[in-house]
Design goal:
Trp Operon Repressor, Chain A; binds adenine; 249 residues; alpha/beta
């Protein structure tokens, strides 16, 4: 999959791409990511990417022309992208479902905003969609672009070594993940649940399902309204609800 990231902080983005799963995906040729310095697409002596807002008020607004030129250049040199995404807190919220949807795309351009905002004509005339990574305001879209590239990349077959671990992630099945343990069997006075040491695979599987359901019920109950539960999971959920009611009584 191909990504082009347009930013005024190319080194910050490059650093975030260099390590871990995404770094290995790039090295292995499964990901083709290029970072573009927005200032290379300016035409004035000062390489300005922002200007004062029409109508007055605080802060600066990102100019439309350098971003439009950057996308034009990417089109010419890298091909027509499937999506041009503007990272902004006013965009649609990026979720795991959205990451899954985007794995169908072959080429995505990510535009990182900075300053108080972006000239509206970037949204209407350059970007094809707008994404937010959550209800908080970052000082720019760079970290958000890295989040989007990471979440999509790890879903591309081969990028994460262990496909099974991706399939079992939190959110993939609409539930939070179950708790994980490794050695030692006792740490800081806390023991690993006996069932995980028992070697009974069916019991381990059932314990994990139940633990994932209990954790989801406690922390994110609204997720259970849309999770696709099988018969065993519905029965386990009833069991958990009864147990928690008994504890309260
Ligand atoms: N830029 C600033 N805040 C952001 C957010 N929450 N998501 C995406 N881009 C942003």
């Amino acid at each position: 999959m191909k990504f082009d990231i347009v930013t005024i902080f190319p080194r910050m983005v490059q650093a975030g791409l260099a390590e871990g799963v995404v770094g290995r995906g790039i090295e292995g040729g499964l990901l083709d990511v290029q970072v573009h310095d927005l200032r290379d697409y300016t035409t004035d002596r000062h390489r300005s990417v922002d200007d004062v807002p029409y109508g007055g008020g605080p802060g600066m607004v990102m100019k439309p022309e350098p971003l439009a030129r950057a996308v034009e250049d990417i089109r010419a040199r890298r091909g027509v992208p499937d999506a041009v995404v503007l990272l902004t807190p006013t965009g649609r919220t990026f979720t795991q479902a959205e990451a899954v949807r985007m794995t169908r795309l072959k080429h995505v351009v990510l535009l990182c905003g900075r300053y108080e905002g972006m000239d509206e004509r970037v949204r209407t005339g350059v970007a094809t969609e707008e994404l937010s990574i959550g209800d908080y305001v970052l000082s720019g879209g760079e970290v958000a672009a890295l989040v989007v590239v990471d979440a999509i990349s790890r879903l591309i077959p081969g990028v994460v070594g262990d496909e099974q671990s991706v399939a079992e992630d939190s959110f993939t099945r609409g539930l939070l993940d179950y708790p994980h343990y490794t050695r030692p069997a006792e740490f800081a006075g806390q023991r690993v649940p006996d069932v995980l040491l028992s070697g009974h695979h069916a019991d381990v599987r059932r314990w994990r399902k139940k633990a994932a359901l209990a954790r989801t019920l406690e922390r994110r109950p609204e997720m259970l309204n849309t999770a696709a539960l099988d018969d065993e999971e519905r029965a386990l959920l009833d069991e958990i609800r009864k147990e928690t009611n008994n504890e309260r009584d």
